[in-house]
Write a structure and sequence with these properties.
It is a single chain. This protein is α+β, with helices and mostly antiparallel strands. The protein has two domains: 2-253, Glutamine synthetase/guanido kinase, catalytic domain (Creatine Kinase, Chain A, domain 2); 261-365, no CATH class. Helices cover 45% and strands 15% of the residues. It has helices spanning 2-8, 46-61, 80-88, 94-97, 134-151, 183-187, 191-200, 232-260, 262-278, 284-299, 308-318, 321-328, 334-349, and strands at 24-33, 69-74, 104-108, 113-117, 123-130, 156-157, 161-162, 174-181, 203-206, 219-224. Strands 2-3-4-5-1-8-10-9 form an eight-stranded antiparallel sheet, with helices on both faces. Helix 3 packs across helix 12 (321-328) and helix 9 (262-278) packs across helix 13 (334-349). The protein starts with a helix and ends in a 17-residue tail after the last helix. The structure holds adenosine-5'-triphosphate (ATP). Residues 26-28, 30, 87, 90, 93, 120, 124, 128, 169, 175, 177-179, 206, 209-211, 221, 223 line the site of adenosine-5'-triphosphate (ATP).
């Protein structure tokens, strides 16, 4: 099965352990591009969308970054569960999962680049890197964009820049985003202020699966809103600076929690570990929220560092509903999924010893 081949290959941006990827899990650059002389996907008839797909798929597969393309297909060739797996892998948007004939997706083996064809625009080029590496992700997307531009004619206005279906993307068509893990700011109830401050300077804060989704597992996606009036370099510089500041606030919040409320931290992490290691049924929402606390405990040295792989690579994505169903090769009811998830987590957590709270013990009575 195609999706199985994709999942068997290692996902480059999910590499755990690097200091740089503890708070910032991943960086993503997406470019919106359209072909001139074809209507935008939302206006196009099915035959027009199919024509665009017929041009776009081979062009995308021919990119140098796609030397090892593992997935390149029309959306109607995927089952609903497979499409949902692609959403859970962050490779396509939820909207794209709802599309069928006339839309497509192309992904490379290491999942550093994925192209959605006929999503809101003809092309959504997405590049991913682990940690805070917006510039490195930009280089991947920029190269793909240049190569496509040599083969196809993009809709471009010398005055406005790239033309896109939604006016908010006109200009560079670039959205830079970082997925950040902010349990310290959530536990210390400062997250609301941070979100407001980030919004005030024109950046969006979205949930785990992008626009219109919840911030499960204390994971947030911070991205630029403006695509007009700023160059690509300026957008990246500004984003890098702001994400750096958010990371600093998260580190300060964690430090403050450890100094002032160590018992709260140890309690939350230990309870999370206790439930994950012993539950017999658990929802994906509860699992993500508890895994976030165990991840926080790892950053604070309460678990051996080698266990990080278990949380980041095994548990965070593989416990999501579609991944569980794909592993069983059948549709499962909510009850069956919750039971399977709990069994999977108990097995994984056998390799994670209980939190080592000794180093926090001095002020523990506080
Ligand atoms: N930093 C990131 N790391 C991993 N995945 C990300 C990151 N940022 C966004 N994504 C994923 O990209 C997909 C699309 O996100 P989103 O809905 O924010 O759309 P967009 O293409 O950036 O913007 P829009 O359609 O609103 O113009 C989602 O699957 C989301 O999880």
């Amino acid at each position: 099965m195609k999706i199985q081949a994709l999942l068997e290959a290692p996902c480059e941006w999910l590499h755990p352990g690097e200091q740089n990827s503890r708070i910032v899990l991943s960086s993503r650059i997406r470019l919106a591009r359209n072909l001139s002389r074809f209507p935008f996907p939302g206006w196009a008839r099915r035959t027009e969308r199919e024509k665009v797909l017929a041009l776009a798929l081979p062009a995308a597969v021919g990119l140098s970054a796609m030397k090892e393309a593992v997935l390149s297909d029309s959306m109607d060739h995927f089952t609903p569960v497979e499409k949902q797996v692609l959403v859970e892998e962050h490779l396509i948007s939820r909207e794209h999962a709802g599309r069928n004939a006339g839309s497509g997706v192309v992904v490379n083996r290491t999942r550093t680049i994925s192209l959605m064809i006929n999503e809101e625009d003809h092309f959504r080029i997405q590049a991913f890197k682990g940690g805070l590496q917006l510039k490195a992700a930009w280089r991947i997307a920029d190269k793909a964009d240049t190569e496509l531009d040599e083969k196809l004619e993009f809709a471009f206005s010398p005055k406005l820049g790239y033309l896109t279906a939604c006016p908010t993307n006109v200009g560079t068509g670039l959205r830079a985003s970082a997925m950040v893990h902010l349990p310290g700011l959530v536990l210390s109830e400062q997250i609301g202020q941070i979100v407001k401050a980030v919004n005030r300077i024109g950046l969006a804060v979205r949930g785990l699966y992008g626009e219109g989704t919840e911030a499960l597992g204390n994971l947030f996606q911070i991205s630029n809103q403006m695509t007009l009036g700023e160059s690509e370099e300026e957008i990246l510089e500004r984003m890098h600076k702001v994400i750096g500041q958010v990371v600093q606030h998260e580190e300060n919040a964690r430090q403050k929690l450890l100094e002032e409320r160590p018992r709260l931290v140890v309690d939350q992490v230990s309870r999370a570990y206790g439930v994950l290691a012993n539950a017999y049924t658990i929802s994906s929402k509860e699992a993500l929220n508890l895994l976030s606390l165990v991840r926080l405990g790892m950053d604070m040295g309460l678990f051996p560092d080698r266990c990080r792989t278990i949380v980041d690579e095994e548990c965070l994505i593989k416990t999501q509903p579609a991944h569980l169903q794909l592993s069983q090769e059948k549709k499962l009811s909510t009850e069956e999924r919750d039971a399977l998830r709990a069994d999977f987590l108990r097995t994984q957590l056998r390799d994670v010893p209980p939190p080592e709270t000794g180093q926090l013990s001095s002020p523990l009575h506080s």
